[in-house]
Amino acid sequence: MSLLGDVARWFTDPAHYQGTDAVQTRIFEHLAVSGLALLVGLLIALPVGLYLGHTGRFAFVAVNVANIGRAIPSLAAIALAIPVAATLLGVQNGLGFWPTFFALIPLAIPPILTNAYVAVRGVDRDVIEAAHGMGLGEAGILRRIELPLALPLILAGIRTAAVNVIATATLGALVAFGGLGRYIVDGLALQEYDRLFAGAVLVALLAIAVEVGFSTFERAAVSPGIRVHQGAL
Amino acid sequence: MIEGEPLIRWDWIASHLDEFAFRLGEHVELTVIAVGVGFVIAFALSLLILRVPRAEGPITWITGTLYTIPSLALFALLIPYTGLTILTAEIGLVSYTLLILIRNIVRGIRGVPADVREAAVGMGYAPREILWRIEVPLAAAIIIAGVRLATISTIGLVTVSSLIGQGGFGFLILEGMQRSFFTTEMIAGAMLSVALAIVADALLVLLQRRLTPWTRTA
User: Fold this and answer.
1) Hey, of B69, B74, B198, which one would you mutate to test binding to chain A, going by the most A CBs within 10 A of its CB?
2) What domains does chain B contain, in order, with CATH numbers?
3) Per-residue pLDDT reduced to its tens digit, B62-113
4) Interface predicted TM-score (ipTM)
């Protein structure tokens, strides 16, 4: 029997669309924990990145956060989130949703923070001086000059964060969370290659869909006049 | 978590130094092979892009897509074909290095000033000599910056390969999780992996200063 035939049968089997292990349930779990973690990461990282970029202070913080973020292995983040979740919310919450959620937040922060910092810092000083001359205050400069000009890089940072978070949410299955990683981890443990392969296909497609979705949104959201500034970190 | 246990049991750490050394060897081996093979492939593809600019679109698209696929999923897609082997781990790890390395190699060589290249032609350098004696040395700083990024991210990804029976320090993290979340072992694996990334990065910075002394003041 060919593997791809087995995988096709797995996808067409109605049993895989019912109950707690249904494909749509796993996709929802995966997106829910990823979306919430991305949102919290965004609420922390964006204001900090914009502030650091606007004032130009603590540059080493912005740069080092990115480097440390890159060095933390995703598996370690998941593992270390277990004692964190258990300490904060009690041992009964030490597995499942909470450690996955806590592990994903620090992975979302570095690309958003660093890109926001670099983007705001990179705004032409002449433009800002002109804005000062026209009577804009600090808040006005940030909101009406720096933010729109920095938008392409900021959105690219959010996209990188989103793809990282979706990828790492897969590992949540190791700490008894659901999500699409369930199929891979269970498929490995049970040596059921159709389930393993189907899960991997779903995870890969979800990550690519998120990447493409954010890219499309970036193109729609960014003013055509400043598109030339593009570039990602 | 095991009830009543401290977060870190130092006696366990002290009695497992041999295992740490063994896992270090594994981790370094997996990383060096991945970055080494990745560099050779990336270099060849970069030369292709520099010679045939039309190839840039498809190559960036393919390596970008590979980079987007989560590591565990990529390993899982390979397992039915290559099994729980080091080959599966390396195919995945090499795939992730390509996007970063190609981007930096191409950007580095394209950044060589046209005047310098012209001067080399005027001095009678053959195209091959221009590549190896002019372009690559001048692009070395940017190329090594790419190698640093690829190395750090590979060291992190190696831990995930513990799920397919490889993993270096990732093995400690995974084993700790399987031993009803033995925090000492998990934290040891995580910290050692981060430490290895920091040391590897520092070594590459030293290498870069050595190879491109003219950038030292910059």
Assistant:
1) B69
2) 20-210 (1.10.3720.10)
3) 999 999 999 999 999 999 899 899 999 999 999 999 999 999 999 999 999 9
4) 0.84
